[in-house]
Amino acid sequence: MPSDPSAPVTWERRLLAVAPWLLIASALVRTWTIVTGFGNETIDLYVYWALAPHVLEGDLYQVTSPHSPPDFPLPFTYPPFGALVFLPMTWLPWVAAQWTFRLLSGLCLYWLVRVSLRLVAGPGWTAEPRVWRRRAILWTAVLLWLQPVYHTFEFGQINLVLAGVVLAAMVARDPRVAGAGIGLTAGVKLVPAISGLYFLATRRFAAAAWSVVAFAVSVALSFLVDAEQARRYWFELLGAADRVGPVATAHNQSLRGALSRTLGYDVGTSWPWIVAAVVSVVVAGLALRVAVRARDALLGVLVVQFLGLLLSPISWDHHWVWVGALLIWLAHSRVVPWVRWTLLALWCPIMFWDLIAFQLDRQPTIWTISRPGWLSLVGWAYPAFALLTLAAVAFVLKDRLGGDRGPASAEVDGLDGAKAA
């Protein structure tokens, strides 16, 4: 990698020249691996497709998916507004819905890559547009093999769609658009609500206010559809992590999951989790301040999303699609070389090799909490590397990020990125 990571070297130029063909090949092979294996079932998508109509029947939280695994009947775990959003998909036959959602997820992956590159490129995007657009194609081909992305397709999860909407909202200029994007995605799945911290950190108070309004509208709509159903979710089921899934299974890469595997019991929100959460908030806060001072919109977005993944009771491995944007930032931003290569050397092996499957094969059941020490240590990979990344930004890169990023306002950068993308 040259001193200017935006300048392509010889080997990259050769790859960029054939990037469209690489994307086609990557998509075909990845599609084949999905449809010929477990991914053809897309069991989570089937939950949305089969259960969403129950939001109109008043029993959304009493039914489970008929295609559930034998050891865990799958319920609908999102707020009632999420079921309303999924309703149009249920009007399609199952196979049509399955392929439509796969195509939508693929397009959102490309969108996520393209906007991420636009944000790190700054004025360079217009100076060398063909290079950056070819990079978007190449990165999409590569990230189809990122394990969180693969598992999103495999399970039929909504992560890529939500990430695409959240990124677009967080960097949008219009505060109403920005706020509505975050508020409504939080209405579908609660975790995006943490994105409001970015608005506060960048003093976009109008966007933060609009996000609260949009979220309130999503909640109010669910009460209008069925008040008792909404009341049950918001006042009884909210916070019941064990209903979402087994907290300590290797799939859960949150702080709570990692701590539970290490200590041998579900730590809940007891003192071990509180200590880890406080450390995470402090380190993420320092990292966010670095990102804002450096006018680095993508880094700021990533810091907030990583904090959300750490603090959420359940952060399935496929929720970590944001690591794809991190790899783009590491490869193309002006980062101290040894930090760049160290973080890439840490993240790439666990992201492109199925570390989760390795752990699943060695745990007796998905409900087993206690496990051998070495296996619980392996289970810290995602949260530990996330904390290490945040610490590197907060303490190592605090005075060593720079470069011409154009306008000081992240929202102006975001507008340019959205237009170009």
From TrEMBL:
The keyword Membrane applies. Its main location: membrane. The chain crosses the membrane at residues 177-200, 207-225, 271-290, 297-314, 343-360, 380-397. Keywords: Cell membrane, Membrane, Transferase, Transmembrane, Transmembrane helix. It is found in: Cell membrane. It comes from the Bacteria. It is a multi-pass membrane protein. The keyword Nucleotide-binding does not apply. Belongs to the glycosyltransferase 87 family. This is Glycosyltransferase 87 family protein. It comes from Saccharothrix lopnurensis.
